[in-house]
Amino acid sequence: MDRRKFLRHLVRGCLALPLLGLAGLSFRKPSYQPDGLVWQIDPSRCVQCGRCATECVLQPSAVKCVHAYALCGYCKLCGGYYQPFAKVLDTAAEHQLCPTKAIQRTFIEDPYYEYMIVEKWCIGCGKCVKGCTSFGNGSLFLQVRHDRCVNCNECAIARRCPNQAFRRVPKSNLYIWKGIHAKD
Amino acid sequence: MLKIRPLLFAFPSLISLHLGAQDRFPKPDFESGHQLPEPYLPFSEPNSWFWDITILICLLILAAYFALRYRSRLGILITSLVALIYLGFWKHGCICSIGALQNIALGLTDAQYLVPLSTVIVFVAPLLASLLFGRIFCAAVCPMGSLQDFVIIRPWRLPAWFAEILGMIRYFYLGIAVVAASTGSAFLICRYDPFVVFFRWSGTWYILLFGFCLLLLGTVIARPYCRFICPYGVLLGWFARFSWYHLKITTDQCVACHLCKDACPIDAIQGLNPNEPVESGLLWGRRLGIILTLAIPVIACCAWLTSFAAIPLSQLHPTVALAEHFQRLEQGVFLQETQETKAFRAHGQPLQQLYEDAAQIQRRVKQSTWYLGIFLGLVFMAKLIQFSIYRQRGTAEPDPAKCVSCGRCFAYCPKESASFRIHF
């Protein structure tokens, strides 16, 4: 082996070592996540600014409103369903908060109504969340839907979130749920 | 009409601690026996990263096989098409080795930040492949490289000095991206990724315009992103320079016909100059001496210049931006309260804490920009030394740092076609 070749091998080894070291280091990290991380909204930090609807790289956004039924009071006058000061409590679109009429209201028994988010129409604007959190139990909240989320390296919404409500969670525990379904 | 729940007023302690959920209206007892619907919780494939990484590694192996062993341009083209469709359009451009660079940078500086093993593999595998076989990742695995490769129509030859100057952008971009990522400010590579908008078919209009312009430019200037912008390409180039087994234009004896040079769209084939006289060692030594004496002042100058970038770079960090906004509000400059300031007032710690955090981040960014300057100075000097070395070459060889192993030169080589070894 001549000198030039030997030097090249030496440099090659010096370049390969840190790479392998890097891979080894990630194994050793105490917080090593075997199944990867995904973005999720912490509902306790969410301020319902409405940017989830506009900042996501997907159109419509991967963030959608979800409903923790176990927390819902099944109110007739729902703060998440009606415009504030709605005069008539019927299902007319002009009385509803939701810009896409994505909340479906079903009569259960007097005076209880069930509210269901029609996922395909929800744009994640958080208007109903604001209403429900301000005037109700807070059973409506925003979550990143992982059948839609493309899991960007730098989440475009997280970057613009005014209260750092976005954080990365392990893939085995995708949702930060409120109430009895809380997995966090 | 509306039944007010007296319970709310009787038991204020019912307000539960469930992540801020307020039980203002307790859950009703349904007389009709109504069951609560189950919440719908869609999830992505729990182990999809395993397949992604398997496919990435398989593509790397295939690319190496087609470039080095089977020597087939068609094979490389098919591999790159698969990569473009799967890693690009199907996975929406994430997983991305170029972006993983930032996760690694942040993970190495911030112990709190988790870097999943999958990200480390996505970052390390192409570099290892580069150390073994050259930049085969660029040729056939990177969806951004593949996309640009498909739009090359009639590549112009840029003057070498101009291409080298444009190539310096990569080092700037790499340095700035690492500083921004390692201080936790921003992931600039992801933010200004020009082609991911095509993979997702959504994004901001200016990135779409940038990507479209790059593709349009890519028809006449081959692979503009790879050659002039890609920060990961810098690392791949360093590793490829010492590659163990690099692609050869011909396995036969080169006849110095220059045909391969015409075939190469990215000017990666080093000049042939068999008849030019060899320079004397004295002249070369003197030139090297001048460069080396210049090195320290040039590097210091670069470090000083880049330290001015600290202020705009630190403003990328949301904490610094928020602290500056508050400072301006306090100074009485007419500025409106933003969502950020409102949220901070509602949830945040004292303002003093925010100012201290921001000052700390600013100090870190300032320090990193000095390192950035030193890095850029070193790169500049290394380039000068590289240009000052004059080598006589009788055979056409690809410059391993530049060659992406696309395999276009195989078919142009008369020795290759004469030997019937060409696989299309």
Structural notes for this entry:
- The complex is a heterodimer of chains A (184) and B (424).
- Chain A is an alpha+beta fold and 184 residues long.
- Helices cover 24% and strands 18% of the residues of chain A.
- Chain A is built from 4 helices and 6 strands, in the order αβαβββαβαβ.
- In chain A, the strands form 3 sheets. Chain A has a two-stranded antiparallel ribbon.
- In chain A, strand 3 and strand 4 form a beta hairpin.
- The longest helix of chain A is centred in the N-terminal third of the chain and has 26 residues.
- The radius of gyration of chain A is 24 Å and the shape is elongated.
- Chain B has 424 residues and is mainly alpha-helical.
- Chain B has 2 domains: 245 residues, no CATH class; 108 residues, no CATH class.
- Helices cover 61% and strands 0% of the residues of chain B.
- In chain B, helix 5 crosses helix 13 and helix 15 packs antiparallel against helix 19.
- The N and C termini of chain B lie far apart (80 Å).
- The relative contact order of chain B is 0.13.
- Chains A and B meet through helix 1 and strand 4 of A and helix 4, helix 5 and helix 18 of B.
